[in-house]
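Feature request, filed as a ticket because there's no other form

It would be nice if the structure record came with a short human-readable summary line next to the tokens. Right now we just get the raw output. Example of a typical job, pasted below so the devs can see what we mean:
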Amino acid sequence: MTAILFFDAGPVISLVMSRLAWLLPDLKKQFGGKFYITPAVKNELVDRPLTVRRYEFEALQVMKFIRDGVFEVYSAVPKRRVDSLRSLANTSFMVDKKPMEILQSGEMESVASALEISAAVVMDERTLRLFIENSSEMKKLLEMRFQKNVTVNPQKIKEFSSQLKGVPIIRSIELVAVAYTMGLLNSYVPPQKDGKGLLLDSVLWATKYNGCAVTEHEIEEIKQFLLK
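Raw output as currently delivered:
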């Protein structure tokens, strides 16, 4: 069976903005499988940014990855499953008695497609992970974000979470860690004591500052593990 990763827009943006997107072709080669983006993700990464001058070049970089076959646009998105999951997710939390739209089209297409063909999802946003693993923390996050009391529908949360329990979720920071172990970043190690530590610190924090949801504690754990 071919190994498959579905990329949400966030990790690609994080890698592009961190000047680390050039790692993707070698990562795919090492992975030996498929890197897919769905039509909604392509819209977020290419179609919409091409209409904004500030983001045009980032869009062109992703277009080149598509032309070069690094990314393939996945056309067999299970629309019915996408709609079902989106309905569950976006009616699970309420504020001012109105449902909150907390998951976007790209995220839902990626997850639904991954479920259909037993693939993994590359996603930086922590919303989905909290939704699946810790709905009480999700409630706190939403209340902090919107500064309002949030009510929950436990049954819908349980149903949504149960459907997504088996989907592996990978973050851009973990892709960067893999690239480091492959030696792809070796040419950036400075000729000084703890040069590898400095390199790791720089690339891991770059992914965090450019959108990857990761804590300082997690970054330190990754560094310690890779520098053993």
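Something like this underneath would help us a lot:
The chain has twelve helices and eight strands.
Strands lie at 4-7, 34-37, 72-73, 93-95, 98-99, 120-122, 150-152, 169-170.
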